[in-house]
């Protein structure tokens, strides 16, 4: 796999996922390195000229009016990192930290931050050699940047804090040494440049978006399998219907469903069993399509953010300007993460309703009660719907928008904040819950297939059925399904089963 070249302009969510999860190497472009070097020269000239520049020779936040003497500028940066590294909670997953480091490096590569090239290169080297700072997940307000989480990253570059290396949690300095790296002594502006940005919320958000996109695509296949087991009517997905309401995402989902159901011997026509299906089946393109709309919005905002300069102040070489501004404010990502939560919660909501139709004998069109092979003696899949209902209820709480909250900080100097990192963290939970809800639907639909006849499934849904059955055997006798649900959810999030489905149906939207 070729390296990802960082130039501050062209990073994609897909590349972030590849670096974070697949350990793809990272290389700084020569042009970006030259810009970073020139910007550092400008920062040093400003510092030596004695011009008042926020964060170079002033304090931070409410202390911005306190001037710092030249002999204390390096100490100022060290104190900044140590004092701000007070995040709490569980450590972020190592893959999230890799994404965080990558995004911070890409922002610095734009050449607006005044950092030395050696500091940026050390950050990139940590990505490539697997030095992953221990970054607690809680403590960011999402404005002035993700200060507390990013400070834990910067500590390790200084040889302090803690980091994971080859699966072992070590003092930061020791982790660097084992990886063949040396810590760096921060100079003027560099501590602030490392922590003043939105990379924690954006890293969490980017990985969550990529998993959401996979989940949305496989959700169409799961729903198609359910529709077959309930003897549904695919005429509602006719191309003509969706051209009449031309949302591209709705049209795309309807096209998916036509491809997924092609060749099925279980679907019915209007009037054959019923005139029309319930909304959770008939309105699949409209509801799943609307979730896709939220994902398109999120993708657009993430793509801009991961290629943005989000620290303060910014140095503009051509104009000879240094400007204190507010690009560190996370409101765009806060809104995007809240929107993602809502869209994925609704994907889970409609899935739970389809699960109810599969297990409820009053709604399933003749399937055994709770898909039990011995109703009464065996409860079958009764309680899986309870679990699904619990998860979608939890999602409704998590989907409450974080972005509408704000608590002033730094003695009211920073009087409006985004809470974007909280929104991103909640989005992770929503998507994980949605994956489990869809896993439950898939397990129930596969069980229903045992009763209606899996041989009648369309080739694409049969491929999905076969993938599940390779991991989850039929529930002929009651057993605990917890691990089956967890394993199935993990497979859905990984996207691995999409390959088999698309081999039968063709590429899905």
From TrEMBL:
Its main location: cytoplasm. One of its GO terms (biological process) is L-histidine catabolic process to glutamate and formamide. Its EC number is 4.3.1.3. It is found in: Cytoplasm. InterPro entries: Aromatic_Lyase, Fumarase/histidase_N, HutH, L-Aspartase-like, Phe/His_NH3-lyase_AS. It is an enzyme of class 4 (lyase). Keywords: Cytoplasm, Histidine metabolism, Lyase. Belongs to the PAL/histidase family. This is Histidine ammonia-lyase. It comes from Paenibacillus sacheonensis. The lineage of its organism: Bacteria, Bacillati, Bacillota, Bacilli, Bacillales. The gene is hutH.
């Amino acid at each position: 796999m070729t390296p990802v070249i960082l130039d501050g302009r062209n990073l994609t969510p897909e590349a972030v996922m590849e670096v974070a999860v697949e350990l793809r190497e990272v290389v700084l472009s020569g042009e970006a390195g030259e810009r970073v070097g020139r910007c550092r020269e400008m920062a040093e000239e400003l510092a030596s000229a004695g011009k008042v520049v926020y964060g170079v020779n002033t304090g931070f936040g409410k202390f911005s009016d306190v001037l710092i003497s030249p002999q204390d500028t390096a100490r100022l940066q060290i104190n900044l990192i140590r004092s701000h590294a007070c995040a709490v909670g569980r450590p972020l997953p190592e893959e999230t930290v890799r994404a965080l480091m990558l995004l911070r490096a890409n922002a610095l590569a734009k050449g607006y931050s005044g950092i030395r090239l050696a500091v940026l290169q050390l950050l990139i080297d940590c990505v490539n050699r697997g030095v992953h700072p221990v970054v607690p997940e809680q403590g960011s307000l999402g404005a002035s940047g993700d200060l507390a989480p990013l400070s834990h990253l910067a500590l390790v570059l200084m040889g302090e804090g803690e980091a994971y290396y080859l699966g072992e949690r070590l003092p930061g300095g020791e982790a660097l040494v084992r990886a063949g790296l040396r810590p760096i002594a921060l100079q003027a502006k560099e501590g602030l440049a490392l922590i003043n940005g939105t990379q924690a919320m954006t890293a969490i958000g980017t990985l969550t978006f990529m998993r959401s996109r996979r989940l949305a695509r496989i959700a169409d296949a799961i729903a198609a399998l359910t529709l077959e087991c309930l003897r549904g009517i695919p005429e509602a997905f006719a191309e003509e219907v969706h051209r009449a309401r031309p949302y591209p995402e709705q049209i795309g989902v309807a096209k998916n469903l036509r491809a997924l159901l092609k060749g099925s011997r279980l679907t019915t026509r209007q009037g054959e069993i019923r005139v029309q299906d319930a909304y959770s089946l008939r309105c699949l393109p409209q509801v799943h399509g609307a979730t896709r709309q939220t994902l398109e919005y999120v993708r657009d905002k993430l793509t801009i953010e991961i290629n943005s300069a989000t620290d303060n102040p910014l140095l503009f070489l051509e104009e000879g300007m240094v400007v204190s501004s507010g690009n560190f404010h996370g409101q765009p990502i806060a809104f995007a993460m809240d929107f993602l939560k809502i869209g994925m919660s609704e994907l889970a909501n409609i899935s739970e309703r389809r699960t109810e139709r599969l297990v409820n004998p009053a709604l399933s069109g003749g399937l055994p009660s709770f898909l039990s092979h011995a109703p009464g003696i065996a409860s079958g899949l009764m309680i899986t719907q309870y679990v699904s209902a619990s998860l979608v209820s939890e999602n409704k709480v998590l989907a409450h928008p974080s972005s509408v909250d704000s608590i002033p900080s730094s003695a009211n100097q920073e009087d409006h904040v985004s809470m974007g990192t909280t929104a991103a963290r909640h989005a992770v939970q929503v998507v994980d819950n949605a994956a489990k809800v869809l896993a439950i639907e898939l397990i129930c639909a596969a069980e229903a297939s045992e009763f209606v006849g899996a041989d009648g499934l369309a080739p694409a849904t049969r491929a999905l059925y076969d993938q599940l059955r390779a991991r989850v055997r039929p529930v002929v006798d009651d057993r605990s399904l917890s691990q089956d649900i967890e394993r199935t959810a993990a497979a859905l999030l990984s996207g691995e089963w999409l390959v088999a489905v698309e081999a039968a149906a063709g590429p899905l939207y």
